[in-house]
User: Which sequence fits this backbone?
């Protein structure tokens, strides 16, 4: 796409001067979500780019509205086993996975979030064994379809 790529969690860390896990521990999830909202709003105001958000970003209604109304949103779907494989190597950076059995937490989160995630403009599957190139190609083709409407 020849666009800048920004990870909203990286921007939150830079703005707060501490890790996501530290923000959760010291101030709690609501404080983190507040900062996340401000960062995503700023990123959207700065112009067109690809923004990667954490899975909980759209669970805050004001942040979800920003995303649904101002972006082409993509939900990259994967099953619990694949998400576990992808997240266990840096579990300490994911505060919600430190509270209980990671598998249970992920199942509960997906159950709560799935209907909200389904509001995304584009849905693509990305299993652990699938090629990132295939996923990207699928996303690009679907973006073209959205833009042609």
Assistant:
């Amino acid at each position: 796409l020849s666009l800048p790529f920004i990870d909203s969690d990286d921007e939150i860390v830079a703005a707060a001067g501490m890790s996501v896990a530290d923000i959760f521990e010291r101030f709690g999830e609501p404080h983190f979500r507040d900062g996340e909202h401000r960062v995503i709003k700023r990123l959207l105001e700065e112009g067109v780019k690809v923004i990667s958000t954490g899975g909980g970003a759209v669970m805050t209604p004001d942040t979800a509205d920003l995303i649904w109304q101002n972006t082409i949103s993509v939900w990259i779907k994967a099953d619990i086993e694949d998400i576990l494989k992808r997240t266990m190597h840096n579990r300490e950076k994911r505060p919600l996975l430190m509270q209980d059995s990671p598998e249970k937490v992920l199942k509960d989160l997906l159950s709560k979030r799935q209907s909200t995630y389904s509001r995304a403009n584009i849905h693509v599957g990305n299993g652990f064994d699938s090629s990132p190139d295939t996923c990207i190609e699928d996303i690009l083709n679907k973006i073209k379809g959205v833009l042609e409407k």
Q: What stands out?
A: The radius of gyration is 16 Å. The mean pLDDT is 89.
